[in-house]
Amino acid sequence: MSMQHNPVPGNTEAVEVHRDGGHYPDRFENPGLEEHRPRLGDVDPAANKRAERQIVALFLVSLLGTIVFIAAYFVVPLGDTPESMQRSNFFLGLGLFLSLFGIGAAAVHWAKALMNDHERAEERHPQRSSDENRAGAIQALKDGAEDSGIGRRGVLKGAFASALAIFPLTIALPLIGEVGEDWDVSKFKHTWWKKGTKLALDPSGEPIKAADVTIGSVFHVIPEDLHEAEHPLDEKAKAVVLLIRMDPRDLRSEQGEGWSYDGIVAFSKICTHVGCPVALYEQQTHHLLCPCHQSTFDVADGAKVVFGPANRPLPQLPIEVDDEGYIVAQSDFHEPVGPSYWERLK
């Protein structure tokens, strides 16, 4: 529908003229604020007191959540098994949720049920207010604090202060617990792979023969002797590998001479961006995709980055085949696996 702005004879107000000949004003009077409707707590003291008790209860929920978090940190250790990790994370997460939810819900309920809810409209002022306006703003803050009723609600004030006081423990406790931990970052430069270690299926640990790896197939691989490690899960997090076989004619380059076998290549499964597991292989393009941030690596060209935020290729594990036909590692990775960090900028 086309329209134009024309003055109406005898009227200086701009109007919209439509094809149907109708005249419609393009400006409307400010309707102002709606009539204030009091809340139940504004007219019923019992309802007001009930809302205060509800807010106190929410702050107590926050206190309980913090206690649950602290207890779980000491009583439910992380452990080295998936089950123990799941159990520990569940109770830690539950405690942190209750701690944060209690404070947040209490603050919202306080603002909606107890604080002044009269609508106000203020005209836009210049960016630099006058000294009088600034003094008025300070007084308004003081009035707001007074209006919140915190000064005359002792139980509410105590619950609020207690919840805020101990909540930081949910953040500080894990940090304090790290004191005395092993900060030797050099161990991240090496994995469980070593010369002669057989490549085995994850999670069964069954060694893999080259004859069983067909063109286009992908295997999730771990060191066969990983169970001998003191902390197998920690070592697995660094040593996981993707084993892929392609037509040798499609293999354009690799990171070291003789690091593959008849089109079979092995690359770290840990993305060099932030460490997500790279596991989506596209057989036609020979591309590996990281599902977290879409970094894409070309397996046929030494796992170089062809798209996304990763800034270096996936480290390649040098492999060969032993006398029994099993695929084994020639050595450990020749560079640190995983994302860039303070000692690896590229």
TrEMBL record:
<dbReference type="Pfam" id="PF00355">
    <property type="entry name" value="Rieske"/>
</dbReference>
<dbReference type="InterPro" id="IPR014349">
    <property type="entry name" value="Rieske_Fe-S_prot"/>
</dbReference>
<dbReference type="InterPro" id="IPR036922">
    <property type="entry name" value="Rieske_2Fe-2S_sf"/>
</dbReference>
<dbReference type="GO" id="GO:0051537">
    <property type="term" value="F:2 iron, 2 sulfur cluster binding"/>
</dbReference>
<comment type="function">
    <text>Iron-sulfur subunit of the cytochrome bc1 complex, an essential component of the respiratory electron transport chain required for ATP synthesis. The bc1 complex catalyzes the oxidation of menaquinol and the reduction of cytochrome c in the respiratory chain. The bc1 complex operates through a Q-cycle mechanism that couples electron transfer to generation of the proton gradient that drives ATP synthesis.</text>
</comment>
<keyword id="KW-1133">Transmembrane helix</keyword>
<dbReference type="Pfam" id="PF19297">
    <property type="entry name" value="QcrA_N"/>
</dbReference>
<dbReference type="GO" id="GO:0004497">
    <property type="term" value="F:monooxygenase activity"/>
</dbReference>
<dbReference type="InterPro" id="IPR045603">
    <property type="entry name" value="QcrA_N"/>
</dbReference>
<keyword id="KW-0249">Electron transport</keyword>
<dbReference type="InterPro" id="IPR005805">
    <property type="entry name" value="Rieske_Fe-S_prot_C"/>
</dbReference>
<dbReference type="GO" id="GO:0016705">
    <property type="term" value="F:oxidoreductase activity, acting on paired donors, with incorporation or reduction of molecular oxygen"/>
</dbReference>
<dbReference type="InterPro" id="IPR017941">
    <property type="entry name" value="Rieske_2Fe-2S"/>
</dbReference>
<keyword id="KW-0411">Iron-sulfur</keyword>
<dbReference type="GO" id="GO:0005886">
    <property type="term" value="C:plasma membrane"/>
</dbReference>
<protein>
    <recommendedName>
        <fullName>Cytochrome bc1 complex Rieske iron-sulfur subunit</fullName>
    </recommendedName>
</protein>
<comment type="similarity">
    <text>Belongs to the Rieske iron-sulfur protein family.</text>
</comment>
<feature type="transmembrane region" description="Helical">
    <location>
        <begin position="88"/>
        <end position="111"/>
    </location>
</feature>
<keyword id="KW-1003">Cell membrane</keyword>
<feature type="compositionally biased region" description="Basic and acidic residues">
    <location>
        <begin position="15"/>
        <end position="40"/>
    </location>
</feature>
<feature type="transmembrane region" description="Helical">
    <location>
        <begin position="55"/>
        <end position="76"/>
    </location>
</feature>
<keyword id="KW-0812">Transmembrane</keyword>
<dbReference type="GO" id="GO:0046872">
    <property type="term" value="F:metal ion binding"/>
</dbReference>
<keyword id="KW-1015">Disulfide bond</keyword>
<keyword id="KW-0408">Iron</keyword>
<keyword id="KW-0560">Oxidoreductase</keyword>
<feature type="transmembrane region" description="Helical">
    <location>
        <begin position="158"/>
        <end position="177"/>
    </location>
</feature>
<keyword id="KW-0472">Membrane</keyword>
<keyword id="KW-0001">2Fe-2S</keyword>
<keyword id="KW-0479">Metal-binding</keyword>
<feature type="region of interest" description="Disordered">
    <location>
        <begin position="1"/>
        <end position="40"/>
    </location>
</feature>
<keyword id="KW-0813">Transport</keyword>
<feature type="domain" description="Rieske">
    <location>
        <begin position="238"/>
        <end position="328"/>
    </location>
</feature>
<keyword id="KW-0679">Respiratory chain</keyword>
